[in-house]
């Protein structure tokens, strides 16, 4: 089983636990990207703890990975065009205390069994899921999560490249809910499962078209 890379700068919040490693995650230091063969990974989780200018300067590496059917799950508040089709992050005008996170129907497997209340509130406080949204997403992208105004918070795009891009408007949904005592704790495991399933589907698709 190929590992999934967790990409970021090396600070305490981005460091992995033994449990993360048992799940098949491995930390990839952002600045090692040019020296890394990404074909070794089933997917990349790109956290909000990155330098976007560096990613922009090396976007060809990400494009090449996607051209081989790779899977990238970006959790970055994007302000530069380093990932195919992903628009700039915008801060929501809705106050965090009033903003409602809505899981779109039909529910994507990433959110199967997740109670929307559990991702809206953490210890009774709203605002941990995301502070922003994407305005102009790729035409054929599938919207997975919005707020009450219909603004896109997470989408998946299988058409802009030969791979799969999941884009979330900020907030590390792998890390934030991992220790919660409710349905949101399963989000991290389901995230990894979705990445692996997309990778396998893309690899089979590539074989069929050869």
Number of strands: 12
Main sheet?
A: 8 strands, mixed
* Binned strand content: 15-25%
Task: Please give the radius of gyration in angstroms.
Answer: 16 Å
Q: Structural class from helices and strands?
A: alpha/beta
Query: What's the order of the H and E elements?
Result: EHEEHHEEEHEEEEEEH
- CATH top level label: Alpha Beta
How would you describe the oligomerization state of the chains in this entry?
single chain
General form: globular
Task: Detail the poorly predicted runs.
Answer: none
CATH architecture descriptor text:
3-Layer(aba) Sandwich
Distance between the termini: 23 Å
Helix content: 10-25%
For this structure, the CATH topology is Rossmann fold
Total helical elements:
5
Give a written overview of the molecule.
It is a single chain. An eight-stranded mixed beta sheet has the order 2-1-3-4-12-11-10-6, sandwiched between helices. A two-stranded antiparallel ribbon has the order 5-9. 23% of the residues lie in helices and 23% in strands. The radius of gyration is 16 Å and the shape is globular. The chain contains five helices and twelve strands. By secondary structure, it is of the alpha/beta class. A hairpin with a 4-residue loop joins strand 10 and strand 11. The chain has one domain: Rossmann fold (3-Layer(aba) Sandwich), CATH 3.40.50.880.
